[in-house]
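dumping this here before i forget
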Amino acid sequence: MNIEWTDDLIIGVDIIDEQHKEFFRRINLLFQSIETNDLKEIARTFLFVRQYVNIHFKTEEDFMKNNINYEYGITNYIEHKNDHDAFIRDFTEFEKIKIKSKREILKIAKEFYPWMRNWLSQHITCIDKKMGVIYNKSVEKK
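structure:
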């Protein structure tokens, strides 16, 4: 089941919205790869996630440090960063699993896909949207 990018997920920060769209595209590609048993693409998607989360999380965290006027609201940088750190910790657990067969790769991917889909949707709607609202309020007041 693919996840669909919808306008209600836009937080109003172009670079972050574009990175979120890329995550959605890659997670959908993972789902298609599971459906077709494309083990190479599954492996590429895991590598992409490992590399891209570092870039994306740094983008969000730097954005919060440098662009948010906190007199218009609290973004709770610590909570946001903790959510990123928890993702990295949990994702690392997926990576630690010793894969001994093609069937195990598919099993892990099938467990990872809904976890990633749910985490991403939850993070955007609950945490990133809050950051976007506060940023947009501070921009309007300038």
